[in-house]
Structure formats: C-alpha cells, structure tokens
Specification:
Helix content: 40-55%
Number of helices: 21
Protein name: Kinesin-like protein
CATH class of one domain: Alpha Beta
CATH superfamily of one domain: Kinesin motor domain
Shape: extended
Distance between the termini: 69 Å
Keywords: ATP-binding, Cell projection, Cilium, Coiled coil, Cytoplasm, Cytoskeleton, Flagellum, Microtubule, Motor protein, Nucleotide-binding, Phosphoprotein
Organism: Zalophus californianus
GO biological process, one term: microtubule-based movement
CATH topology of one domain: Kinesin
Structural class: alpha+beta
Strand content: 15-25%
Subcellular location: Cytoplasm, Cytoskeleton, Flagellum axoneme
C-alpha cells in the first residue's frame, strides 16, 4: 500500500497487479469490403491483412505483403449494444469499486470514432459508449442504497494545442479569465480552470453531454462530412461514502472517455485553409501519442515523453497509470484505405505492449476521522475508569492539567529540592511528565539567576573568542602565560577574581580601556556582545509557566465595547405601508378576484403569459401549414411516381433502346424524373423546417407552462393575503418580517384551461418509443435542441432588428 498526503487529507492507493491494455478493433460497415485482403480469425481475436505483390517492381521484390495482428476482439457488423458490452461495461462497473478507467477511440478520419463514442442522438438505440456509461453509473448507484455516491462530470476539448472547456457556455459557468493549464500533483494530473459539474440524476448528465456536443468544432472534407477537428475527453468523477459504516475511508475514481480526432492523409482529404491547419495539429499530436506508446511498451526506457503535447500530458494518468485502459481502434474495410488500416492496427498492437497497474483509490475524511478518534478516546477513558475502580484507585483524573494543578506540581518540586518534602506521590503518566517538566523549569530559572548574579559582579569572556582574548592581553588584564589576572575560582568560567585591594564601587583605568576595546571589536565584528551565546545563553523550557492572558482579555474588552457602541442602527429599507382599501366582509368569487389580480398585481406576469401564448400559437400555426405543404408534396410525389411507373411499363412494352450501354428514354419520362427529384428535395427541406418548428413549439410550451404556474402561485398568495389572513397578522407578512409570502398553504383555486393541443403535446411526450429507460435521454435531447433553437431564433431576431 502506498500512502500520499495532501493538506488535511490522506490518500491511500492499494497497489494491484500489472495487466496489459485491452485493444479491440471495430470495422466500419461498407458495401465495398475487401474480402480478399482482410480476413478474420475463427476466434474473432485476430485479423490478417494480405496485399497482392506489385509486379511492376520486378521479379525480385522483398516488400512485405502479409500482416497478422493479435487483439482482444474484432467487432465486425456489431451493434452499439454489443460494442458497449464487450468494451466498456466492465471498466465502468469497476469504477464504482474505486478503480480508474479509460476508454479511447483511435483511427483515421471517418472511421466511426465519434459514432462509437457518442452515437447518434436522434435514435435512442444508436447511442454510443458515453451515454450508455452514464446510464450504467446511475443504474448501479440506484442498486447501492448503502452508499452515498456523488457523480461529477467535465468535458475538455484540445483544439490546435489549446485547451477549451466545452461546458463553459452554461450560464452559471461563464468564460475563464485565465487560460487553462495542465497541472500535476501527488494525486495525478488535472486541468486547472476546467469546470466540474455535479449531476444528481441521469437527465442532468445527458444535458451536460449534449451541451458539450453542440460546442465541439467540426468541419467537412472529402473523407467525412462531419469530421471532428479536436480531441475531446469526457470525464466522470465518482465518490462513494458508506452510509452504514462510520469508517472515515471512502473511495474515488474517474472514467476518461476519449474521442480522438482522426488522422488524415492530406492527399485524400483535400483539406485547405483552416482545415489544413487543423489537420496538421491533429497529425502532430497523434504522432506524439504514438511515440509515448512506443516508449511505454519498451521496458528499458526510463523517460516517457508525456510533455510533448497537450494530449499526452492530459492522458498521463491513463497511459500506463493506475487505471483500467481499453483501446478501441476504428478501421475501414475498403481496399482504398488499406494503408491507414495497417497504421491503425500497428498502433493497436503497440498499445497491447503497454502495462498498467489498476489500484483502488482510497481517501480518508479528516472530519470523520476526528469524530472516530473522539469516540475512541471516550471509550478508552471508560476502560481506565473501570481499571482504576477494580484497583481501588479513586479520584484519578486523566484530563489535561490546568494552571492551578501545574502550579501545585511546581511547588512540590521546589519543596522536594529544598528538602522540605520527602517524596512526590505518583498518580498517572500525565502527572509524571509534568513533574519532569517542572524540574526543567526550576533548573532553567536557577541557571538564569546564577548567570545574572555573575554578570552583575564580573565581566564574562568566552574562551573560544580569540579576538576578545587578544584585546584583553593588549589591555594588560592577562599575564604572559595566558592566564587571567586574579585567582581562578575553579568553576569552569573564564573570569578574573578581583584582588582584595581593589576598592568596591570604583573602576580601574585598565578595565575601562578593556571595555572600550571590546565595544569597538564588537562593532567591527558585528557581534551583539563579546560573549558567545552558545556557551553562556540558557534556554528556558517550553513548558515554563507563563502569565495568564486574562490581562490581555481585560484590555481587549473595552475596545470591543467601544466597537459595539459605535455601531449605529441601520435605517430600515422596508417601504412604507401602503394604504389599503377596507377589506370586504365576504371574499369575492375567485374568478372575479382573478380578473382583478391580472389587471393589478399580476399584470406583468399576465402580459408575459399572453405574449408567450401568442408566440406558441404562431409556431403551431406555422407547423400546421408546413405539415399541410409536406402532405401536398407527398401526394404529388405519389402521383409522379405512378406516372413514371406507367411510362416505364409502356417503354418496356414498346421495346427498350440502348446506345453504347446507356438506356434511351423519351422526353416525358425524363421530365418526370426531374420533377420527382425536385419534389424529394422540397420534401426534405420542408421536413427539416417542421422538425425545427416542433422543437420551438416544445420550448414555447415549456415557457407557457412556467408562466401559468407562476401566475397561479402569485394569485394564491395574493388572495390569501387580501381576504383570508387576519389583519393583525398582516404585519408579519411585510418584507422585513420573518414570514415570507406564500408560506400559508392553500389549494389551487383557479385553473387555466388547457386546449386540445396542450393535452396532445403532453400525451406525445409520455408515449416514448423506447420504453422508460429512454425518458432521460430524450428529455435531455429535447431541452438541448430547444435551447439551441431558441438562441438561433433570438440571434435571427436581433439581426432583423439591426437591418
């Protein structure tokens, strides 16, 4: 077990056994699959590549034409469910037991990495690894009621070697003032400035995921219409505390879900301008990633180049760290992409050589640890009390000693040294320690008294201070042999005993000169005194009795009184009580009171409600018109198809004409084909507009429901205050009082009638196609689309106003 400290927290990591990284391959489905060049093993754990020998290079051609790669699994024509069950399910499950996990998608551009990691948000069945991992985490949390588990998420984007927070667009986050940086500490690598969001339910996590997905940078080229132009790391942080055990230990873990940007061959992708610059950064970072993987696979290498780029630095914990690492390589199955497929498979083979050491991350809560130690202390005191009672020892106190008890022990020590006390009674270990402490205090005080007495009578000189001795010799206070003038007292001090002929109270001329020379030497040498503090200074004990701080408290007391008295009462900011008309004896009918409320106190809310309702009706009207146009286009398409089929059958009966392998058709059939093509184009455009309008209708419906609820709530509060609450209690409902408006419960009095369209919209939301498990997924998707369409509409309105 390895222990690490950081502040008040202690981190323990149980060292596990080393294991190799799991590597899987997913082949993108295609109609042009190279069956002659790509072969799968019978166990679906190997893939063989065969290239035909190029005869143009001559008979002697040593170019390699066959490759075989051993992997942990080959996923061909696999569904999203099978991919998640095979690749990610075990990693996510072990994360709730304290093991870190990393799942990385690697491959060339357009091979299906983003589809594998995120999936298609339009269809619940086609969701990828990331939303499925969130679902599994919250499902396992619901199955563990004995633990309090907290989930947090973050979404990092690395674009052109710059770090971006994909969740910074949320209103409560805002853009960061300082740029984000990658920082290392004893607990691992983290990104300073990256926002981490608490998610208490599955729908909130999906909303954050979809919010980040809308902020990702994508571009189009010949290989992929929606190519990711950045590396993205979605991290799930898990923290689990036990509800049943009072243990201060808890576990933490994190799951890194990495969607790498695809490597590109510029000749095939045809990238230009900004897309070309992005491709350069992508290929550069992926090459640095491969260098780090090669270094990790080499056991003789001491240095791993993690700091070459932001990607490898951010993934330092995941690559060869203490986590469960899984690589999913996405490849093409077409012959035209065989070179990139070989490169991706080589990367997967190198990744299998990397070993990790998964370990449980345990932390200790300092607050809970203190509480447990206090409980243990109470139990130990109880056991001591039982032991003392059995040994007939009474009145034994194990608490820390106060100043009175310490002063009593000091008095006993002094009497013992003077001989007036024969022995000191031993009570407990704390009292023994204090007795020795007071011995040290008394000894220190006596040393100080002796030194002070000697300083009053004599001038003390350090024997090791040669400068002072030479000055004394020049002053004539030392004889030729180096002995001090006078008789030594034999106590080990370098001092001169004054002759008896010297008169007290007078200083000799030589001594005066000696002191002046010593003073000049002290000023030259920078010393405070001619005597070294090492030999003559006596340090006092740390446990010496110090005067009580009560005097300081008494001195501070008048200051606090002055500060308190200087605070003047603040003027009241509450508005003056408005004059109210006399209350009627009987409350008016609720419909009448509701109309009065809408015209007076609730006029602003009612105005907003009417505006939102009018916008909602306008969007519904537009959606209805668009639906009618789509139906008309569909009917016209059906008629055109029938006419085209009739022309085709007529042509087959009359005989078909061919010219150089091309079918010859008449002008009427050609015009029908062009018309059908135009109708399909119109149908797709109208259908896209209808989808956008439906999203706007849902968002407007949400705003209308909020305004309706707010209007009813405010009316309930107003009706209670105006007609039901006694007048003597009206004072309690003022702004400065302790009771807030609306604290008095009342049932709903008036309900705004919902039209048929409202009821149909709510019923449509309830009848979801994929069952109860898809509710959170679709709710988060709808909210994200509503927000995006709302922002798009508002930007369009602002641009219209500017024009």
């Amino acid at each position: 077990m390895m222990r690490r400290k950081n502040g008040n927290k202690r981190y323990f990591t149980r060292m596990g056994t080393r294991k190799k990284v799991h590597a899987f391959v997913r082949v993108k489905p295609t109609d042009d699959f190279a069956h002659e060049m790509i072969k799968y093993g019978d166990d679906n754990k190997s893939i063989d590549i065969h290239l035909k020998k190029d005869l143009q290079r001559g008979v002697v051609n040593n170019k390699q034409t066959d490759w075989s790669f051993k992997l942990d699994g080959v996923l061909h024509n696999a569904s999203q469910d099978l991919v998640y069950e095979t690749v990610a399910k075990d990693v996510v499950a072990q994360a709730l037991n304290g093991y870190n996990g990393t799942i990385m998608c690697y491959g060339q551009t357009g091979a299906g990495k983003t589809y594998t990691m995120t999936g298609a948000t339009e269809n619940y069945k086609h969701r990828g690894i990331l939303p499925r991992a969130l679902q599994q985490v919250f499902r396992m949390i619901a199955e563990r009621p004995t633990h309090a588990i907290t989930v947090r998420v973050s979404y990092l984007e690395i674009y052109n070697e710059s770090l971006f927070d994909l969740l910074s667009t949320l209103p409560y986050v805002g853009p960061s003032v300082t740029p984000m940086t990658i920082v290392e500490n004893p607990q691992g690598v983290f990104v300073k400035g990256l926002s981490v969001h608490l998610t208490s339910q599955e729908e909130d996590a999906f909303s954050l995921l979809f919010e980040g997905e809308t902020n990702r940078i994508i571009a189009s080229h010949t290989m992929n219409k929606n190519s990711s132009r950045s590396h993205c790391i979605f991290t799930i942080y898990v923290e689990a505390h036990s509800r049943t055990l009072s243990d201060e230990k808890y576990i933490t873990s994190k799951i890194n879900l990495v969607d790498l940007a695809g490597s590109e061959r510029l000749g095939k992708s045809g990238s230009e301008g900004r897309v070309l610059k992005e491709a350069t950064y992508i290929n550069k970072s992926l090459s640095f990633l491969e260098q780090a993987i090669i270094a990790l696979g080499d056991q003789k290498r001491d240095h791993i180049p993690f700091r070459q780029c932001k990607l490898t630095h951010a993934l330092k914990d995941s690559l060869g760290g203490n986590c469960n690492m899984v690589l999913l390589t996405n490849i093409y199955g077409e012959a035209a992409q065989l070179e990139e497929t070989l490169s991706s498979l080589r990367f997967a083979s190198r990744m299998k050589l990397v070993t990790t050491e998964p370990a449980i991350n345990e932390k200790y809560d300092a607050e809970r640890m203190v509480k447990n130690l206090e409980k243990e202390l109470v139990l130990l005191k109880q056991e001591l009390a039982i032991h003392d009672s059995l040994a007939n020892r009474t009145l034994v106190n194990y608490d820390p000693m106060d100043e009175i008890q310490i002063a009593e022990i000091n008095s006993q020590v002094r009497r013992y040294l003077e001989g007036t006390l024969d022995e000191i009674d031993i009570i407990n270990l704390r009292q023994i320690q204090e007795v020795f402490n007071q011995f040290r205090v008394v000894l220190s005080q006596q040393e100080q008294e002796v030194e002070a007495t000697l300083r009053r009578k004599y001038t003390l000189i350090d024997k090791n201070d040669f400068a002072a001795i030479s000055a004394v010799q020049k002053a004539g206070l030392v004889d030729v042999d180096g002995h001090l003038v006078g008789e030594p007292d034999g106590q080990g001090f370098g001092l001169g005993v004054t002759p008896y002929s010297t008169k007290p109270g007078k200083k000799s001329k030589s001594k005066k000169m000696f002191k002046e020379q010593l003073g000049s030497l002290a000023r030259k040498e920078g010393a405070g005194s001619p005597v070294s503090g090492k030999d003559l200074e006596v340090s006092t004990s740390k446990t010496q009795l110090t005067p009580s701080s009560k005097e300081g408290d008494v001195k501070e007391l008048p200051l606090r009184d002055r500060e308190t008295s200087s605070i003047e009462p603040l003027p009241s900011d509450s508005p003056k009580e408005e004059s109210r008309p006399p209350r009627p004896s009987t409350p008016p009918p609720k419909p009448v009171a509701f109309e009065d409320f809408k015209n007076e106190r609730g006029s602003e809310i009612n105005r907003i409600f009417k505006e939102n309702k009018s916008i909602l009706n306008e969007r519904r009207k537009r959606a209805s018109e668009t639906t009618q146009r789509i139906n008309a286009i569909k009917r016209e398409m059906d008629v055109t198809k029938e006419a085209l089929n009739f022309q085709k059958s007529l042509r087959e009966k009359q005989g078909e004409y061919e010219n150089k392998g091309l079918m010859i058709i008449d002008e009427e059939e050609f015009l029908l084909i062009l018309k059908l093509k135009d109708l399909k184009k119109q149908y797709r455009a109208e259908y896209q507009d209808l989808r956008d309008l439906r999203a706007e209708v849902q968002y407007c419906q949400h705003l209308v429901d909020q305004c309706r609820h707010r209007l009813l709530t405010e009316f309930d509060i107003w009706y209670n205050e105006s007609f039901f609450i006694p007048e003597d209690m009206q004072v309690s409902l003022k702004p400065a009082s302790g009771i807030r408006p609306g604290m008095v419960p009342i049932s709903r009095l008036v309900a705004l009638g919902e039209d048929d369209q409202d009821k149909f919209s709510q019923l449509q939301q309830m009848m979801l196609p994929e069952g109860p498990d898809s509710i959170s997924f679709y709710n988060a998707k709808v909210k994200t689309e509503q927000k995006r369409n709302y922002l798009k509409t508002m930007m369009g309105l602002q641009q219209g106003h500017r024009k």
